[in-house]
Amino acid sequence: AQKVTQAQTEISVVEKEDVTLDCVYETRDTTYYLFWYKQPPSGELVFLIRRNSFDEQNEISGRYSWNFQKSTSSFNFTITASQVVDSAVYFCALVSISGGYNKLIFGAGTRLAVHP
Amino acid sequence: GAGVSQSPSNKVTEKGKDVELRCDPISGHTALYWYRQRLGQGLEFLIYFQGNSAPDKSGLPSDRFSAERTGESVSTLTIQRTQQEDSAVYLCASSLGWGDNQPQHFGDGTRLSIL
């Protein structure tokens, strides 16, 4: 079965704090892709990152970084020095061959509120 | 615009009525997807189109739901005899193709409210 779990329903931080959003996934496949999307209050889903299962290197993009660990089936997302504009719902998602490579399996999302 | 376009942005209708939602994918994107997002929840896959191949309808929740796509252009999602449980945001996404896992780019969605 394919499943994505985002255990944190809501997180509230003060601006400039670092925050990590957790994502744990389940799949029997050895080849799969993981994604993070941001959904700001305006509603549109914004693609942030895609990572394939063979590349465990951590990635940094500005204030965003991602930690992929196959040993714990986790793909966590850290925002450094958070800003009010980071307030959004963040979704982790999985695509794998068992799922047909065309269905994103989404977690329930984590709502991040960054206060000034 | 260059993004995925969905219309209407909001739709309010009475229970039992039929509704039709429209999606214009990004030009050149051969793959098109429909998802449903209930309030406070993640996205549920509904249906997928890739070129002229038979669509993957495995996510459609009931036979009241159907979707069409002409070639690699516009898609319509139709819900017949709407129920209150159909209230949700319906999101359309498109991507360059299938199998190479190009990111799916989403529209702003249609917020459907069934009274």
Please indicate the percent range of residues of chain A in DSSP E strands (runs of 2 or more): over 45%
Please, how many helices of chain A?
0
Largest sheet of chain B: 6 strands, mixed
Which structural class do the helices and strands of chain A define? mainly beta
Principal-axis shape of chain B equals globular
Report the span from N to C terminus of chain A.
Answer: 41 Å
Number of strands of chain B: 10
State the share of residues found in helices of chain A, binned by percent: under 10%
Residue windows where pLDDT falls under 50 for at least 5 positions of chain B: none
Largest interface: A-B, 25 and 26 residues
Q: Stretches of chain A where pLDDT falls below 50 for ≥5 residues? A: none
Oligomer: heterodimer
H/E series of chain B? EEEEEEEEEE
Distance between the termini of chain B: 32 Å
> How many H/I helices of chain B?
0
Task: Please bin the fraction of helical residues of chain B.
Answer: under 10%
Strand-residue proportion of chain B:
over 45%
Number of strands of chain A: 12
Summed up, what is this model?
The complex is a heterodimer of chains A (116) and B (115). By secondary structure, chain A is mainly β.
